Structure formats: structure tokens, C-alpha cells
Write the C-alpha cells for this entry.
Amino acid sequence: MSDLTRNTVYFAFVALLIIGTGFIQSWNSALFVLNFGLISAIMALGVNLQWGFAGLFNVGIMGFVALGGLATVLVSMPPVGEAWAAGGIRVILSLVLGAATIVGAILAYGALPKGKPRAIGMIAILVAGFFIYRAVFDGGVAAVEAVNPANAGYLGGLGLPVLIAWPVGGLLAAGAAWIIGKTALGLRSDYLAIATLGIAEIIIAVMKNEDWLARGVKNVVGLPRPAPYEIDLQNDPSFVERAAGLGLDPVTASTLWVKLIYAGLFAIVLVALFVLAQRALHSPWGRMMRAIRDNEVAAEAMGKDVTARHLQVFVLGSAICGIAGAMMTTLDGQLTPGSYQPLRFTFLVWVMVIVGGSGSNLGSVLGGFLIWWLWVMVEPIGLGLMQLITSGMAEGYWLRDHLLDSAAHMRLLTMGFVLILVLRFSPRGLIPER
């Protein structure tokens, strides 16, 4: 079987799974799977850029996805005027002072002679800067968070169209990746993984606890959206008439139409990123990255700046994850920092890349759709299977209760089983790198 035929069969199978979901459950469920599958495929592309192209083991994907979600709030939500008047300027001033303290310490490190003068100078700058920063910051935050805390209590955003938040989410994630990469990319791969995982947890902790930024665990709801609201469509006579012509009630038709709009937007982004990733893969830059991945020592001997190239690809892959995070938050319509978990936003994405094929952009897209479908559908399928198995058992029987309760763990069991199968029979993934 040729590569083209095999790949066509794989994607046709995934398409049948999604279409089958529409027939067996509902088309709303099928479009839900499709939309999140598109977002998952974009995340997998970003991780494949880092691991498949350059061999960088990034376990902090969750943090970059969360920064993309944060960008959606900072860009699209309207500013809270009372909060800005109460303490917004103080908060911004304190952040500038904090950045100035760090820059001052860096300049002092380069200007002062080695030994005690350098150490004393840096300590003095950092300690003094910290106390000045906290004195300005704490008062501003207290004033901002006291403004209507039930519904606001934060500064809000810029009030711009939500689609602008998607590239901004990529830029925010890229900026964080540059800072992380400058400090962590010199580490060995296992230490890099630990560092990125810890930094991702720090990002989530900041988002949960800094209410002035995005309401913390109180969440930001009612985010602007690029699609019309279902209630508006249901009140539109022309839309209701078109829905009736298709044999659909207005409620179902409106939800399907909105999800189709999201699917179209997400598909455009995925196709654009896929084309760019393919061009990068087959360019001299892509060949250089794979040469560095396969043998760093030989690449350095040929005059390649390995650390600089690693930083490049680390920033690019993180930016793609940030774009996906902004898209996901837009689809959800709310930012919930408590929902960011490593299992969902880091390790599941890694399973997508490994199953699809590390180093293969097409494989990453396939893995994103396939693994997301399994993640969503395995639990209800498992519950139905357990109900069928226990149908002849008496109510309250211990084995029946145990089997029904175990259906909740079918997701993890299936992910492990699929991963073992792929690693055993196709260790390079379903669509290997060529």
C-alpha cells in the first residue's frame, strides 16, 4: 500500500468516526468533537515542531495554552473603567518598576567587577527594587480587586475584536517561551522537561491567584465571539425559515450553524499553519533542524549555533500552542484557570504526536483528531459496554457496581493501550517521518 493510499485510509477512518458520532449521538456532538479536534491538531503541530524537528522535550505545553487563553481576555474584554481609576495605573507602574529592577540587576552584573562589589550591588538593587515594587503593587491590586468583585474585580481588556486575540495569544506565548528558552535551553533534555513543567505550573498559579489580571478562579465569562449568538439566530425570521426548509427546529439549527462557523475558522488556521510547517520542514532550515536533532555535536562542528536554533524552534512551537489556547478559550466563551490540567493540555498532546508520528506534520494532525475522538467517546462507550456486561447482575451486587464505576477510568486505560499498540507495531507513528 502506498503512503498516499494509507494516509487517505487513516483520515477517512477518522472522518467516519466523527460522522458516525453524528448519526449515533447527535450532530452537535460530532461538531463538538470536530472543533476540539481541529484545536488539538494545532497543538500537536506546535509540539511536533519542537520535538519532531528539534528533539526538544517540552512538558510545559499547558502553560503556553493558558497564556493564549489569557490573551483572549486581555484583548477582547472591555476595560473596567472604575478599576483603572482605582488602581490600574499603580499596577502598571509597579510592573514597570519590577522590569526595571531586573534590567538594572543585569546591567550591574555586566558593569561591576567580579567579587564582592558585583554581589553587593546586585543584591542591593534586587532587594530595594522588590520592596519598592511591592509597595506600589499591593496597594494598586487591593484597589482594583475591591471594585465590584462579584462581577469584575479586574482591569479588563482592550475591547478589541476577539479574532485579534488569536495571534496575540501566539505572541504572548512566544514571549514567555523566549524568556524560558534563554534560561532553560542550555539544560539537558530531562532537566529541560522538569523546568518547563514547573514553569507551566507557575503560570497557572499566577492566573489562579492574581484576580486583578483575569479574575483568578472566579473566571471570566461572556467572552466576545466571532460567531453570532444562538438566541439572535432564533429570533431572526429569515434564519428560522431556512431552518424549517431543512427540517430543523430553530434551536438545533442555530447551535449547528454557530459550531460550523467555528469549524470553518479553525480549519482555516489549521490549514495555514500546516502549510507553513510543511514548507519549513522541507526547507534548508528544516533540514538543518533535523540535522541538529539527530547529532548536535556534528552540527556544532559544522558551525551551527545549536542553542540559538533550539530557541528559535522552541519559540515557534510555543506560539502555535498559544494560538490554539486562544482559539479554545474563544470557543468555550470563558477563561477558567482551574481547568488547565497537565493530563489534558500536556500529556494528551504528547500522545497525539507520538501516535500520529513524531516529525510528521500530517501525522500530528491525524493524531490530534484520533486521540481527541477517543478521549471524548471512550468513556460513554465504556459505560454502555459495562451496562451490557452487567445487565444480568442483580442491583447492588459488588461486581456490578465495581464494573460500572470503572467506566470512568476507560479514558486512561484506552490511552495507555493505544500508545502501547502503536509503539509495538508502528514505533515511528501511524504516519512516520519521511
